[in-house]
Amino acid sequence: MTTQTFSVTGMTCEHCAGAVTGELKELSGVTDVTVDLVAGGTSTVKVASAQPIDEQDVAVALDEAGEYRLVAQ
Amino acid sequence: MTAEATGFDDQPADVVLTIGGMTCASCAARIEKKLNRMDGVTAATVNYASEKAKVTYGGTVRPEDIIATVERTGYTAALPSPPAGSRDAAAGTERDEHGDEAGAWWQRLLISAVLAGPVTLVSMVPALQFDNWQWLALTLAAPVVVWGALPFHRAAWTNARHGTATMDTLISVGVTAAFVWSLWALLFTHAGAPGMRMEFTLPNARSGGTHIYLEVAAAVTAFVLAGRYFEARAKRSSGAALRALLDMGAKDVAVLRDGPGGRSEIRIPTDRLAVGDLFVVRPGEKIATDGVVVAGASAIDTSMLTGEPVPVEVGPGDGVTGATVNAGGRLEVRATRIGSDTQLAQMARLVEEAQNGKAAVQRLADRVAAVFVPIVIALSLITLAGWLVAGGSATAAFTAAVAVLIIACPCALGLATPTALLVGTGRGAQLGILIKGPQILESTRRVDTIVLDKTGTVTTGRMSVASVHPIAGGSTDEVLRLAGALEDASEHPIAKAIADHARDAVGTLAPAERFVSHGGRGVAGVVEGHAVVAGRGSWLRDEWAMTLPDPLLEVVERAESEGRTAVWVGWDGLVRAVIVVSDTIKATSAEAIERLRDLGLRPVLLTGDNGRAARAVAAQVGIDAADVIAEVLPAGKVDAITRLQRSGRVVAMVGDGVNDAAALSQADLGLAMGTGTDVAIDASDLTLVRGDLRAAADAIRLARATLTTIKGNLFWAFAYNVAALPLAAVGLLNPLIAGAAMAFSSVFVVSNSLRLRRFPAAA
Q1: What is the reported pTM?
Q2: Are the beta carbons of B74 and A15 separated by less than 8 Å?
Q3: Contact B762/B595 with Cβ under 8 angstroms?
């Protein structure tokens, strides 16, 4: 069980947080997602999973959810 | 094959859908992304502000598929009602929609208030409690809770599906809890007995089961509906700016057609103009569309694009822009761009993009609720668990748990923002500040930069005579008498400035005979028997063989270095004077800039006019030369604002012209001069009615004061209820406490808002 923390930009409201959570949860192996929303700024997303997730997959999932981008920590 | 709107062959079809459930621009972006990813969809745009999606599709995609995709993303989509035939019909529909919205809230409010009134009265006053009163209260309160609060229930449900909570969730949960609890109490406890009276005793643990909270359910609903109604009334259509822009084009145009009998002129609607058509523009008319001058020479008023007050000279071969005004002579123009390719259409797109790009900040009250609701629900569960663990009965446990839910619903929450906005906007109106978008006042970021348009905002936009310089031994009055009379015959703004000034100085002007206008070079005529000429120095020298004296040349050089225009005047073969004409700076502008600085704002001058004029004006009003951005087109103005925003500043903008509209939309706070164009007024958030720049400082202070009041109101709305939470958790809640919390918080919110009435204008 590992937890990875990502910085994500582009979220402005709770709907965004919900969409991001939904998309990330669909990645295989992900057990839990928590979003610390900073509207209009850089939000923190914690992903708990059985195995570490590839950052690339996370970026793709974020892109699928909307205009969200991974930024360097 | 049915006659549905399927794309067949390779013909793409278009559909416009109304999208519901979006709370911010990111939602729109997400839907847009999903739609664009659909097979068969060639283009999709979703506009958050107008709640519309426009999709171009082909192949086997059907509108139903598009709707399904939107719904899968978590929103609603519907085909709009039968399309409007003309632009005016569409405009009317949108205005109606907003009127309807306020009307719908009013209806709901009225009925709920009418029902809630008696319920509250009879619940609060024991003397009025006749036998079986509680059943009447139930009957009256039921429609309020079920129908009156329906918008909140619906919104709460949608939010729950997304896993979020807003103010609607809080209201819905509280009202439902109060009602369901009361219903249960009436049916299953002795609260339903005919002789029941609700007394107002101090809280004691035994009376938990007999309380009903119908008045809480009904009154809270009524209060929150009142708040929504006020807000709906204040909302103005955001599409107004775009419509006003598009209305600016000429409606019809005189086209020259070659026929059997030679060339003839036909008037056709501008829509039917085609690229390559030759059309005529008479003095005073609007140019129908972008094109190139084929014949004729004139001066064009381009203030729409550049803000420059001085008309631009054009002749054959020069390009002209649609919707600008021909100030001089007759022109024949060949159309090069029509419809959505024209400059005017591009400006409209700029405005639309700027409006779309603004992510609406989530409403303050909703943000508070998003945090508060989960806490309350948790508290309620903890209370339930706590009671059961402590050995209490299931009834007592539920009583306490539900009591927590009931008391947590702040009655004044729905009024906190609207009352402050109402009083704030009212006070603003008294001070000549019209606040259009209430939401903008909630923006919690503090403005630190204020961008000012030059022409019409800092300056009057009208040319006026700055100084008159007669030659040695000459008289100013004589110069004005003769030059004024001559210029009176011309329509050019510079001529009018001279003529008006002359009239003020010497009275009635003599008529000018044999008046001839020589395009951009000057005018000539006979006044009082003298052959008078006025115009460019080079023209007087070359055409009229007049020598230009050195002292006057120095005057001209100095004037031009300040971006002013110099008009040479001569009669009977000799140069007699130079008249310097310039845009006038408003008397109040310098003071206004100082006040804005005092508020902590950095002023920036942004103009389409030339750099020298801009810097001269900036120096006179107190703006640093480094903060002057000149010679920018409308798109450039938007870029300037965006650049400032990207560097982390919160930007307010003051403008008046059509060329400011997009920038005003892009700015965090847009202020329009009431004396300016309708387009600018519609594109901005605040209007300074009297065109006095000092009101901008007042407006910023008022916005800040209103925001502070809203925050204070939210605090008080919650404070009393939160204070009562512990009482509810231990089962000591009774309608007296609930009613007191409601009353106190509402009174405080309203009186706090009324304090805004005493907001002072700066001395």
Answers
A1: 0.65
A2: yes
A3: yes
